[in-house]
Amino acid sequence: MITKKIDQYQPDGGNFPLWLRYEPKQAAGHVHRHEFVELAIITSGNGEHRTKYSLNKLLRGSVIAIPEGGEHVYSEAHNMSVFNIIFDPKTLPIPLLDLYTMPGYNALFMLKESFFSNDHPYPFFNLKDEEIKRVELLLNLMHEECTTPKSGQRFTLMGLFMALLSYLSRAYSEERNIAHMLPLDIGKVISYLSLHYRENIESEKLIRQCNMSRSTFLRNFQRSTGCSPIQYLLKIRISHACRLLLNSDYQIAEIGFTVGFQDQNYFSRCFKNQTGMTPREFRLSYEKPRKRITPRL
Fold first, then answer.
1. Could you tell me which residue, 208 or 297, shows the higher pLDDT?
2. What pLDDT score does 96 carry?
3. 5/46 Cα distance (integer angstroms)
4. Which whole number is the average pLDDT over 15-39?
5. What is the value of pTM for the model shown?
6. Rounded to an integer, what distance in angstroms lies between the CA atom of residue 283 and that of residue 281?
7. Strand partners, 37
8. Among 141-155, 174-188, 233-247, 248-262, where is mean pLDDT lowest?
9. Which CATH architecture is the domain 231-284 placed in?
10. What is the mean pLDDT of residues 10-22?
Protein backbone atom coordinates (compact mmCIF):
# COMPACT_ATOMS: atom_id res chain seq x y z
CA MET A 1 0.00 0.00 0.00
CA ILE A 2 1.21 3.51 -0.86
CA THR A 3 2.09 5.79 2.06
CA LYS A 4 2.08 9.45 1.01
CA LYS A 5 4.29 12.12 2.59
CA ILE A 6 3.65 15.83 2.89
CA ASP A 7 6.72 16.79 0.83
CA GLN A 8 5.15 15.11 -2.23
CA TYR A 9 2.64 17.97 -2.44
CA GLN A 10 4.72 21.05 -1.62
CA PRO A 11 6.97 22.98 -4.02
CA ASP A 12 9.50 23.74 -1.25
CA GLY A 13 10.07 20.14 -0.23
CA GLY A 14 7.65 20.01 2.67
CA ASN A 15 9.41 22.16 5.26
CA PHE A 16 6.11 23.70 6.38
CA PRO A 17 3.54 21.26 7.86
CA LEU A 18 0.49 22.70 6.06
CA TRP A 19 -0.58 22.77 2.43
CA LEU A 20 -3.72 22.85 0.29
CA ARG A 21 -4.22 20.96 -2.97
CA TYR A 22 -7.18 21.51 -5.28
CA GLU A 23 -8.43 18.74 -7.56
CA PRO A 24 -10.98 20.21 -10.02
CA LYS A 25 -11.74 16.70 -11.34
CA GLN A 26 -10.94 14.18 -8.63
CA ALA A 27 -10.54 10.68 -10.07
CA ALA A 28 -11.27 7.38 -8.37
CA GLY A 29 -8.02 5.95 -7.08
CA HIS A 30 -6.29 3.27 -5.03
CA VAL A 31 -6.29 2.65 -1.29
CA HIS A 32 -3.50 4.61 0.40
CA ARG A 33 -2.50 6.16 3.71
CA HIS A 34 -0.68 9.34 4.78
CA GLU A 35 1.98 10.41 7.24
CA PHE A 36 -0.21 13.42 8.01
CA VAL A 37 -3.83 14.39 8.69
CA GLU A 38 -5.96 15.06 5.61
CA LEU A 39 -9.07 17.20 5.51
CA ALA A 40 -11.09 16.82 2.29
CA ILE A 41 -13.99 19.10 1.36
CA ILE A 42 -16.17 18.40 -1.69
CA THR A 43 -17.27 21.54 -3.56
CA SER A 44 -19.04 20.04 -6.59
CA GLY A 45 -20.08 16.74 -8.14
CA ASN A 46 -20.61 13.51 -6.25
CA GLY A 47 -18.91 10.20 -5.50
CA GLU A 48 -18.09 7.61 -2.86
CA HIS A 49 -15.38 7.54 -0.22
CA ARG A 50 -14.32 4.25 1.34
CA THR A 51 -12.29 3.62 4.50
CA LYS A 52 -11.66 0.49 6.58
CA TYR A 53 -14.77 1.33 8.57
CA SER A 54 -17.28 3.05 6.32
CA LEU A 55 -18.56 3.86 2.84
CA ASN A 56 -19.88 7.42 2.48
CA LYS A 57 -21.82 9.02 -0.34
CA LEU A 58 -20.19 12.34 -1.25
CA LEU A 59 -21.87 15.49 -2.48
CA ARG A 60 -21.26 19.22 -2.43
CA GLY A 61 -20.45 20.20 1.17
CA SER A 62 -19.22 16.78 2.35
CA VAL A 63 -16.30 16.99 4.80
CA ILE A 64 -13.95 14.08 5.55
CA ALA A 65 -11.18 14.00 8.17
CA ILE A 66 -8.60 11.21 7.77
CA PRO A 67 -6.24 10.68 10.73
CA GLU A 68 -2.53 10.05 10.30
CA GLY A 69 -2.09 6.47 9.07
CA GLY A 70 -5.75 6.14 8.07
CA GLU A 71 -6.46 4.08 4.94
CA HIS A 72 -8.94 5.46 2.42
CA VAL A 73 -9.85 5.79 -1.26
CA TYR A 74 -12.28 7.61 -3.53
CA SER A 75 -14.02 4.54 -4.92
CA GLU A 76 -16.24 6.63 -7.24
CA ALA A 77 -15.97 10.19 -8.52
CA HIS A 78 -18.34 11.97 -10.91
CA ASN A 79 -17.36 15.52 -11.92
CA MET A 80 -16.15 15.89 -8.35
CA SER A 81 -14.07 18.86 -7.18
CA VAL A 82 -12.12 18.44 -3.93
CA PHE A 83 -10.02 20.69 -1.74
CA ASN A 84 -7.47 18.58 0.16
CA ILE A 85 -5.81 20.20 3.15
CA ILE A 86 -2.84 18.26 4.49
CA PHE A 87 -1.20 19.11 7.79
CA ASP A 88 0.68 17.72 10.76
CA PRO A 89 -0.96 18.78 14.06
CA LYS A 90 2.16 17.74 16.01
CA THR A 91 4.44 20.28 14.32
CA LEU A 92 2.03 22.89 12.99
CA PRO A 93 2.63 26.14 14.92
CA ILE A 94 -1.01 26.75 15.88
CA PRO A 95 -1.18 29.41 18.63
CA LEU A 96 -2.41 28.13 21.99
CA LEU A 97 -5.51 30.29 22.05
CA ASP A 98 -8.82 28.49 22.55
CA LEU A 99 -8.75 26.08 19.61
CA TYR A 100 -7.88 23.15 21.88
CA THR A 101 -10.89 23.93 24.06
CA MET A 102 -13.29 23.16 21.19
CA PRO A 103 -14.71 19.60 21.40
CA GLY A 104 -15.30 19.57 17.64
CA TYR A 105 -11.63 20.28 16.90
CA ASN A 106 -10.41 17.61 19.31
CA ALA A 107 -12.86 15.06 17.88
CA LEU A 108 -11.91 15.87 14.28
CA PHE A 109 -8.14 16.11 14.52
CA MET A 110 -6.71 14.97 17.87
CA LEU A 111 -7.88 11.34 18.04
CA LYS A 112 -5.49 8.59 16.99
CA GLU A 113 -6.25 6.17 14.18
CA SER A 114 -6.38 3.30 16.69
CA PHE A 115 -9.53 4.82 18.23
CA PHE A 116 -11.71 4.37 15.14
CA SER A 117 -13.76 1.26 14.37
CA ASN A 118 -16.83 0.07 12.47
CA ASP A 119 -18.98 1.60 15.22
CA HIS A 120 -16.99 4.85 15.22
CA PRO A 121 -15.66 5.57 11.70
CA TYR A 122 -13.49 8.49 10.63
CA PRO A 123 -15.22 11.88 10.97
CA PHE A 124 -17.61 12.64 8.12
CA PHE A 125 -20.39 15.24 7.90
CA ASN A 126 -22.19 17.49 5.46
CA LEU A 127 -22.23 21.27 5.65
CA LYS A 128 -25.44 23.23 5.30
CA ASP A 129 -25.89 25.46 2.23
CA GLU A 130 -25.05 28.68 4.09
CA GLU A 131 -22.00 27.03 5.67
CA ILE A 132 -20.66 25.85 2.30
CA LYS A 133 -20.41 29.41 0.95
CA ARG A 134 -18.32 30.61 3.89
CA VAL A 135 -16.05 27.55 3.78
CA GLU A 136 -15.57 27.92 0.01
CA LEU A 137 -14.45 31.53 0.47
CA LEU A 138 -11.75 30.45 2.92
CA LEU A 139 -10.68 27.55 0.71
CA ASN A 140 -10.33 29.77 -2.36
CA LEU A 141 -8.23 32.27 -0.42
CA MET A 142 -5.99 29.46 0.84
CA HIS A 143 -5.66 28.09 -2.69
CA GLU A 144 -4.62 31.51 -3.96
CA GLU A 145 -1.89 31.68 -1.30
CA CYS A 146 -0.58 28.25 -2.29
CA THR A 147 -0.56 28.90 -6.05
CA THR A 148 0.67 32.52 -6.14
CA PRO A 149 3.36 32.85 -3.44
CA LYS A 150 3.65 36.28 -1.89
CA SER A 151 5.45 37.72 1.09
CA GLY A 152 3.86 36.52 4.33
CA GLN A 153 2.48 33.42 2.62
CA ARG A 154 2.80 31.12 5.63
CA PHE A 155 1.42 33.69 8.05
CA THR A 156 -1.63 34.31 5.83
CA LEU A 157 -2.11 30.60 5.16
CA MET A 158 -2.05 29.86 8.89
CA GLY A 159 -4.59 32.61 9.62
CA LEU A 160 -7.02 31.34 6.99
CA PHE A 161 -6.50 27.74 8.10
CA MET A 162 -7.25 28.60 11.74
CA ALA A 163 -10.47 30.33 10.69
CA LEU A 164 -11.43 27.25 8.65
CA LEU A 165 -10.63 24.88 11.54
CA SER A 166 -12.72 26.92 13.93
CA TYR A 167 -15.67 27.05 11.56
CA LEU A 168 -15.59 23.32 10.76
CA SER A 169 -15.10 22.42 14.44
CA ARG A 170 -18.24 24.35 15.36
CA ALA A 171 -20.19 22.66 12.57
CA TYR A 172 -19.01 19.20 13.61
CA SER A 173 -19.92 19.89 17.25
CA GLU A 174 -23.53 20.11 16.10
CA GLU A 175 -23.36 16.70 14.42
CA ARG A 176 -26.00 14.39 15.89
CA ASN A 177 -25.11 11.15 14.10
CA ILE A 178 -24.82 8.48 16.81
CA ALA A 179 -21.54 7.19 15.30
CA HIS A 180 -19.90 10.55 16.02
CA MET A 181 -21.16 11.08 19.57
CA LEU A 182 -18.32 9.13 21.21
CA PRO A 183 -15.55 11.13 19.48
CA LEU A 184 -17.30 14.34 20.52
CA ASP A 185 -17.59 13.08 24.11
CA ILE A 186 -13.85 12.37 24.19
CA GLY A 187 -13.35 15.78 22.57
CA LYS A 188 -15.25 17.37 25.45
CA VAL A 189 -12.92 15.71 27.96
CA ILE A 190 -9.83 16.92 26.08
CA SER A 191 -11.34 20.41 26.03
CA TYR A 192 -11.98 20.25 29.77
CA LEU A 193 -8.39 19.19 30.44
CA SER A 194 -7.10 22.00 28.20
CA LEU A 195 -9.15 24.58 30.11
CA HIS A 196 -8.57 23.31 33.65
CA TYR A 197 -5.04 21.87 33.47
CA ARG A 198 -3.87 24.02 36.42
CA GLU A 199 -6.46 22.47 38.73
CA ASN A 200 -6.44 19.23 40.72
CA ILE A 201 -8.60 17.16 38.37
CA GLU A 202 -10.17 13.95 39.59
CA SER A 203 -11.35 11.28 37.17
CA GLU A 204 -14.97 11.71 38.34
CA LYS A 205 -14.94 15.25 36.96
CA LEU A 206 -13.89 13.92 33.58
CA ILE A 207 -16.41 11.09 33.56
CA ARG A 208 -19.17 13.64 34.15
CA GLN A 209 -18.24 15.28 30.83
CA CYS A 210 -19.52 12.21 28.97
CA ASN A 211 -22.16 9.56 29.55
CA MET A 212 -19.93 6.53 30.22
CA SER A 213 -19.01 4.18 33.01
CA ARG A 214 -15.55 4.62 34.52
CA SER A 215 -14.08 1.56 32.79
CA THR A 216 -15.62 2.45 29.41
CA PHE A 217 -14.36 6.02 29.68
CA LEU A 218 -10.80 5.00 30.56
CA ARG A 219 -10.70 2.43 27.75
CA ASN A 220 -12.04 4.85 25.14
CA PHE A 221 -9.77 7.67 26.25
CA GLN A 222 -6.71 5.40 26.01
CA ARG A 223 -7.74 4.30 22.51
CA SER A 224 -8.40 7.89 21.44
CA THR A 225 -5.20 9.53 22.66
CA GLY A 226 -2.75 6.69 23.27
CA CYS A 227 -2.46 7.52 26.95
CA SER A 228 -4.45 7.77 30.18
CA PRO A 229 -6.25 10.99 31.22
CA ILE A 230 -3.58 11.79 33.84
CA GLN A 231 -0.81 11.26 31.28
CA TYR A 232 -2.63 13.55 28.84
CA LEU A 233 -3.00 16.17 31.58
CA LEU A 234 0.72 15.99 32.31
CA LYS A 235 1.49 16.49 28.60
CA ILE A 236 -0.61 19.66 28.58
CA ARG A 237 1.10 20.96 31.71
CA ILE A 238 4.59 20.24 30.39
CA SER A 239 3.73 21.91 27.07
CA HIS A 240 2.75 25.09 28.90
CA ALA A 241 5.83 24.81 31.12
CA CYS A 242 8.06 24.67 28.03
CA ARG A 243 6.48 27.86 26.73
CA LEU A 244 7.06 29.67 30.02
CA LEU A 245 10.64 28.42 30.31
CA LEU A 246 11.43 29.86 26.89
CA ASN A 247 9.44 33.07 27.08
CA SER A 248 9.58 34.24 30.69
CA ASP A 249 12.13 34.79 33.42
CA TYR A 250 10.08 33.06 36.12
CA GLN A 251 11.88 30.73 38.48
CA ILE A 252 11.48 27.04 37.69
CA ALA A 253 9.50 26.34 40.87
CA GLU A 254 7.20 29.24 40.02
CA ILE A 255 6.59 27.85 36.55
CA GLY A 256 5.80 24.42 37.95
CA PHE A 257 3.26 25.90 40.31
CA THR A 258 1.75 28.05 37.55
CA VAL A 259 1.02 25.06 35.30
CA GLY A 260 -0.47 22.93 38.08
CA PHE A 261 2.38 21.15 39.91
CA GLN A 262 2.40 21.57 43.69
CA ASP A 263 5.73 19.79 44.16
CA GLN A 264 8.90 20.98 42.39
CA ASN A 265 10.60 17.58 42.46
CA TYR A 266 7.55 15.93 40.88
CA PHE A 267 7.46 18.69 38.25
CA SER A 268 11.14 18.09 37.40
CA ARG A 269 10.65 14.31 37.15
CA CYS A 270 7.61 14.63 34.88
CA PHE A 271 9.38 17.23 32.74
CA LYS A 272 12.43 15.02 32.23
CA ASN A 273 10.29 11.97 31.48
CA GLN A 274 8.63 13.85 28.60
CA THR A 275 11.48 15.96 27.23
CA GLY A 276 14.61 14.04 28.24
CA MET A 277 15.90 17.15 30.04
CA THR A 278 15.35 18.84 33.37
CA PRO A 279 13.56 22.21 33.23
CA ARG A 280 16.88 23.97 33.84
CA GLU A 281 18.63 22.05 31.05
CA PHE A 282 15.72 22.78 28.70
CA ARG A 283 15.90 26.52 29.41
CA LEU A 284 19.68 26.63 29.01
CA SER A 285 19.53 24.80 25.69
CA TYR A 286 17.86 27.84 24.13
CA GLU A 287 19.74 31.09 23.95
CA LYS A 288 17.11 33.49 22.62
CA PRO A 289 16.25 36.40 24.96
CA ARG A 290 13.30 35.91 27.26
CA LYS A 291 10.87 38.47 28.57
CA ARG A 292 8.66 38.24 31.59
CA ILE A 293 5.02 37.45 30.90
CA THR A 294 2.19 37.14 33.35
CA PRO A 295 0.64 33.68 33.36
CA ARG A 296 -3.13 33.39 33.66
CA LEU A 297 -4.25 31.90 36.94
1. 208
2. 54
3. 26
4. 89
5. 0.73
6. 5
7. 87
8. 174-188
9. Orthogonal Bundle (1.10)
10. 76
In this chain, the answer to whether the domains covering 2-175 and 231-284 adopt an identical fold is: no
> β-pairing, 37-51 with 72-87?
antiparallel
Please state whether beta strands 2-4 and 32-34 pair in parallel, antiparallel, or not at all (unpaired).
parallel
Q: At what angle do helices 214-225 and 229-247 cross, to 10 degrees?
A: 50
Distance in angstroms (rounded) separating the CA atoms of residues 295 and 257: 11
- List the one residue out of 81, 74, 75, 92 whose CA is nearest residue 37: 92
Would you state the pLDDT for residue 293? 45
Identify the burial level of 100 via C-beta atoms within 10 angstroms of its C-beta, where 0-12 means exposed, 13-18 middle and 19 or more buried: middle
Share of the chain above pLDDT 70, in %: 88
d(CA 135, CA 154): 19
Per domain, the residue ranges of the chain are 2-175, 180-229, 231-284
Fold of 180-229: Arc Repressor Mutant, subunit A (1.10.10)
Q: At what angle do helices 181-195 and 214-225 cross, to 10 degrees?
A: 80
91 with 46: CB under 8 angstroms?
no
CATH class of the region 2-175: mainly beta
Q: 103 pairs with which residues across the strands?
A: none
